[in-house]
Design goal:
The complex is a heterotrimer of chains A (287), B (278) and C (340). Chain B contains ten helices and twelve strands. With 278 residues, chain B is an alpha/beta fold.
Chain lengths: 287, 278, 340
């Protein structure tokens, strides 16, 4: 077949678009990302993002004006949910932006070089795996201050371990394969082997893992802000909104249930997308 | 006289991704009692599908048997209810698997796996045998496949045994209930040549001694010559030639058979059609 | 024999992990904040007070000596004093850990006991409706934030249906001292207090479900994938050819070899289970270590926080050791080769 890459891309898209879960996931993710980017333009009350109060409009149930109702100081919850997506997505981007490159490079190095490199990297990974990211973020919050940036760094400082483990096991399998040996025989540099021979073979696994991880990082971040250790009010944050609304349960249920559903929806989108990509790329062992 | 096993005009299709492939197109073959028959063909010729159809191991779907009969002892296996079909497996006909590395369950001991097979075979045959007798039978069969220390072998996990030993265990498993027909799927191809030769000799001796019928599925003409007296050649889902083994080698009829024979490397360092430069 | 050396190796690695963990905690507690003494005393303390506390805590000595003292304290089980409760941290943790342990144990039993059979069902009816149902359940269980699920369960079962208690381990009116093991489920049986056992179970149910859901979904997913993988193996085909009945093939021949990957991941996922315990304990006012940890974090009670982190790490390491033993028991390849 001529122009194989194009045909491949088309075939992949064809298979992907036939996979209902993947398509639903993609649609959810695209909607959420677009909503977050366009938040100031599509929300009915963009000024409710700040410390606005309107006590006459407090605890209003969902209506055609306030789609998700209003909170205890009368702010529009729909507006705040859409803005809250921004924080969740920012968290995912920052954490994975650090964790993926670090995890990939360490994993490739440990898997390819072996010896002491492998021992040191994998032992450090073992240590880091023993600390729950949420607990780490809590400890950092105790030492420094409860703050979004600190939480992101704390989570990122542990999240790379999963990527390292995954890339490590892929690299270990690749190392003994003939195309790597052939490249070595031909005198390819270590850099070339790592980034031109091994890395391309990890890309599909990384894509699947990234998509699934976006969902999980968002969940950890939401749990943190639920505990009061995320971004500080009045900036809207989904986890914080659930926590604040919880004190008005069950009468004003929308104040915590709807932001909670928003987190679920966002995490669901990334998970379905990751699941679909896993079927597409046929990388069954990526979790 | 009627054959022990007779496959008549068997056709099988596979449906995957909406496309249908005719994998078997009217295959017929006979295995007389006590006879040693070979079914030879290259990968994808349909010999494995034929074997699975006989054993009732085809997954349906994707496979679909579109026509023909498989007569065993005069009964059409394709007409039998699932229960009765299962009842024949391991008792009337049994199978020697190809890959000794992957055909034994890694997490159970040999004894565990063999006694379980025996237990359910006994139950189907209405035979009563206690746990101790079953174990004794397992050791007996392991000794028959020339295993030196049956007790030690049966207590082992597959990972503790060499490839040749595992292949013997697979043969022993097939022999547990004294089946009349043994189907062997290229046994030993995963092993080194010397071990494979030993396995084939063992299999041949066992079959001759106990008067079993053997259907040897293989792509290797050397194996055909060693183990069979009559041979069917398959290509692209059809039987293209059948003959006494000696006749086939001396005087192949179809072009396909000729090319198969020609492709066998010979010690003189060339094939019939050209010389291989080392 | 090989298994023994495998275990010894794993124990040594675990010790190494714990040493590494102690370093991480030391760095967070003593190095990152700059001056822990000033942090503890607050901005209004005089320089003399700060200097005095620095000497008391040994902060004026070299960093290596400080670490040595920290380790020495750890090996004696001395985690320092809590600023919040003004008691030794290890006393606080000892009292609260039992509640967390009980919750986490029930969660694991629930997650395995339901997740694994669900995975088997999905694998057996692959691509049919039970499979679809299980996959849906698994995805939703994985993406529902545990605090959100905890709240929903609390409203639904507690306030709307009035079925189950929504806070604590026992009703306030019930007098019972869990003095033997600290675990209500065991101590109540020892004491023959069946009413306590019943109440303890009723109180456990909602938090355990909230905490187990994500792991349960993960277990179902992994068991499914693993079973499908195993079902394609030659030895399953061979078992079929030798006339092993289907139910036995699924429950014995397929289940056991496919058990190792879910079990291994269960061990690694255990860290996120502990993380989940922090929010679930908060929602259900569960008097556990995690809830204690949160309270102390908000008070900047460093010794207590580090104690909680350290104990979480030790818990993780011990659970993984236990899982190593289980894996070796399930899979002779691990036992014989000495690695997984």
């Amino acid at each position: 077949m001529t122009d194989a890459p194009l045909t491949n891309a088309y075939q992949n898209w064809f298979r992907f678009s036939r996979n209902p879960t993947a398509m639903i996931g993609l649609v959810i993710v695209v909607i959420c990302v677009m909503a977050a980017i366009l938040a100031p333009h599509i929300t009915p009350f963009p000024d409710h993002v700040g410390a606005v109060t309107n006590f006459r409009a407090r605890h209003l149930p969902p209506s055609s004006i306030n789609w998700f109702g209003t909170d205890n100081v009368g702010r529009d919850i729909f507006t705040r949910v859409i803005f809250g997506l921004r924080i969740s997505l920012l968290l995912a981007v920052v954490v994975l932006g650090i964790a993926i490159p670090v995890g990939t490079i360490l994993g490739m190095a440990a898997g390819y070089f072996g010896g002491w490199t492998e021992i040191v990297i994998m032992r450090v990974t073992d240590i880091a795996l023993a600390i729950p990211p949420l607990v780490m973020a809590l400890a950092v919050a105790a030492v420094l201050s409860p703050d979004l940036l600190h939480s992101m760094l704390a989570i990122a400082s542990l999240w790379w371990t999963w990527h390292t483990r995954m890339i490590y096991s892929i690299t270990r399998q690749l190392r003994t394969q003939e195309f790597i040996e052939a490249a070595e025989t031909l005198g390819a540099s270590k850099f070339h082997i790592l980034f031109r021979e091994i890395l391309p073979n990890c890309v599909s696994a990384i894509a699947v893992k990234t998509s699934l991880d976006c969902g999980f990082v968002i969940l950890v971040g939401a749990a943190l802000s639920f505990l009061g250790l995320g971004i500080q009010p009045p900036t809207p944050d989904l986890g914080t909104m659930v926590a604040q609304g919880a004190s008005f349960l069950p009468d004003y249920w929308w104040e915590s249930v709807l932001p909670g559903l928003a987190i679920l929806f966002l995490a669901l989108g990334f998970n379905l997308l990751g699941d679909g990509l896993r079927d597409l790329f046929d990388v069954e062992d990526v979790r | 006289m009627s054959a022990l096993l007779s496959v008549r005009d068997l056709s099988v299709e596979f449906t995957t991704y909406g496309q249908t492939a005719k994998v078997l197109q009217g295959v017929s073959l006979d295995v007389q009692a006590h006879a040693q028959i070979a079914l030879v063909g290259e990968s994808g010729s349909g010999k494995t599908v034929t074997m699975k159809a006989i054993m009732g191991l085809l997954r349906q779907p994707p496979a679909c048997i579109t026509g023909g009969q498989i007569l065993y002892d005069g009964r059409d296996l394709l007409m039998l209810a699932d229960r009765d079909r299962v009842a024949l497996r391991g008792t009337a006909m049994s199978m020697v698997f190809q890959d000794p590395m992957s055909s034994l369950n890694p997490v159970f001991t040999i004894a565990d796996q063999m006694t379980t097979i025996l237990k359910y075979a006994d139950r189907r045959l209405g035979r009563v045998r206690g746990a101790r007798d079953r174990m004794a039978r397992v050791h007996e069969v392991l000794a028959q496949v020339r295993m030196r220390e049956p007790e030690r072998v049966s207590a082992s996990y597959p990972i503790m045994l060499s490839g040749g030993m595992r292949q013997r265990v697979l043969i022993a498993m097939a022999l547990l209930s004294e089946p009349a027909l043994l189907i062997a799927d290229e046994p030993g191809t995963a092993l080194d040549v010397t071990t494979q030769a030993q396995i084939l000799r063992l299999l041949k001796d066992l079959v001759t001694q106990r008067g079993l019928a053997l259907l040897m599925i293989t792509h290797n003409l050397g194996v055909v010559r060693e183990t069979s007296s009559y041979v069917y050649v398959m290509n692209k889902g059809r039987v293209v030639e059948e003959a006494e083994t000696a006749t086939l080698f001396a005087n192949p009829q179809s072009d396909y058979t000729k090319s198969l024979i020609a492709a066998v490397p010979r010690l003189t360092g060339g094939t019939r059609y050209g010389t291989v430069t080392p | 024999m090989e298994f023994l050396s495998f275990l010894i190796k794993r124990v040594l690695w675990s010790v190494l992990v714990l040493v590494g963990l102690s370093m991480v905690i030391f760095v967070i507690a003593r190095v990152v904040p700059g001056d822990p003494a000033r942090m503890a005393l607050g901005p209004r303390a005089t320089p003399e007070q700060v200097a005095q506390l620095q000497t008391e805590l040994g902060l004026d000595r070299p960093i290596v000596a400080q670490y040595g003292r920290f380790i020495e304290g750890l090996t004696r089980g001395d985690l320092g004093r809590s600023l919040l409760t003004e008691r030794p941290v290890n006393d606080d943790i000892r009292e609260t850990f039992a509640a967390t342990f009980e919750l986490v144990l029930c969660t694991m039993v629930l997650a395995m006991g339901i997740g694994v059979p669900l995975g088997m069902i999905a694998a057996y009816w692959k691509d049919q409706w039970p499979d679809t149902a299980v996959r849906f359940f698994a995805i939703f269980a994985a993406v529902t934030p545990s605090f959100f699920l905890a709240l929903l369960l609390q409203i639904l079962a507690g306030y709307v249906l009035h079925l189950l208690p929504t806070t604590g381990r026992l009703p306030n009116s019930m007098e019972f001292e869990a003095s033997t093991t600290g675990l209500l489920l065991i101590d109540s049986v020892i004491a023959g207090r069946w009413d306590v056992l019943g109440e303890a179970l009723r109180h456990l149910l909602l938090p355990a479900i909230a905490l187990a859901a994500a792991t349960m979904g993960q277990m179902a997913r992994l068991t499914r994938a693993s079973m499908i993988d195993v079902s394609r193996q030659d030895y399953i085909e061979a078992a079929r050819a030798f006339g092993i009945p289907e139910w036995l093939r699924v429950t014995k021949y397929m289940l056991r070899p496919s058990f190792v990957p879910p079990l291994t991941i269960m061990g690694l996922e255990f860290a996120s289970l502990i993380g989940g315990a922090f929010v679930v304990e908060m929602v259900f006012a569960w008097p556990g270590m995690a809830a204690y940890g949160i309270r102390t974090i908000l008070q900047k009670d460093l010794n207590a926080v580090m104690g909680v982190v350290m104990v979480s790490g030790v818990f993780f390491v011990l659970v993984n050791l236990a899982i190593d033993v289980m894996v070796g028991f399930v899979d002779p390849r691990v036992r014989i080769r000495g690695r997984r």
